[in-house]
Design goal:
The chain has 316 residues and is α+β, with helices and mostly antiparallel strands. It has helices at residues 23-37, 46-73, 79-90, 95-104, 109-129, 138-147, 172-184, 189-196, 270-299, 305-315; strands at 12-16, 19-22, 153-154, 158-167, 208-213, 236-238, 250-260, 263-264, 302-304. The protein has three domains: 12-131 and 301-315, Orthogonal Bundle (Triger factor/SurA peptide-binding fold), CATH 1.10.4030.10; 137-147 and 266-300; 156-261, Chitinase A, domain 3. 50% of the residues lie in helices and 15% in strands. A four-stranded antiparallel sheet has the order 5-4-7-6. A three-stranded antiparallel sheet has the order 2-1-9. A two-stranded antiparallel ribbon has the order 3-8. A hairpin with a 2-residue loop joins strand 1 (12-16) and strand 2. It is globular. The termini are close together.
Length: 316
Amino acid sequence: MASCSRSASPDAIATVNGNEILRSDLERRYRDYRHSLGSNEPEPSPDQANLVRLSILRDMIDSEILQERASRLDVVATDDDVNARLTEMKASFTQEEFDKWLKQRNQTLDDLKRDLRNSLTQNKLINKEIESKINITDAEISGYYATHKAEFNLSEPLYHFARIVVDDNPDANNRIHTLRDKLENGEEFSVIAMKYSTDRETAPNGGDIGFVSESQLPEALRAITKLKPGQFSEVVPFFGDHAHGDRIGGYAVYEMIARELPGQREQNDPRVQQLIRQRLRENHSQLLKNAYFEVLRNEARIHNYLANQILEKTSR
């Protein structure tokens, strides 16, 4: 393979429209990824490690493309946005615990603020360019129901849950019990989830994870199906969203919002319409985001030096 000519700095591992992505940032994210796997995870081979690095770098390249687009559209997260999110994150820590958490992640406060700004900016951009343009019609809902009617004939109970999650770290057990104490003292579950949960997928929605069938729950969580609507669980292990995974990723408290008995659900059931609307929105959103990302990549000037280096080693 012919080597790629480069005029970037020695620490640049990629460039996007001339803007550099640094090797040091890639390695920090790689260390974060390894840390998230836990200490029992075996050390990867060099090929496996570089495969992960390529995947992380692809995400970093996409992020840089999105940041540039957001800047052109003037939807970059403000200092107030970043500080508000940072305040939410710090609320369940003492200052000492927060400093320790940053150290465990090999991050400085500036690193964290930069990551928060990027994440919030991407959310603003996607909301403006994608989410705000999705409109689910009644005809689409009817069409989906007609095609998937059998899916709404429930063969087992469904449970509507919300959750509060604290990622696995040395202080996680103490923090989740502190949050459960807040619930015991009468604070709203959804408010606690929005302010303190580390689950980025559900926290903005007050911890709501939608409906789950009993067979989708790990064995260790089956007991929460015995909760009554409005009740919340004891502290339980959090396994992520891999239904039968066995690696604990932290701790959680679940709230039972509602339960559905087996049987056919009709299209005029508001819960059926809400579920179909949510599924169609998610499908449209994913399709549009994939197409949007591809168009932005096509328009960008990208140099992935890591990919070139890997191929050059192979060709020697």
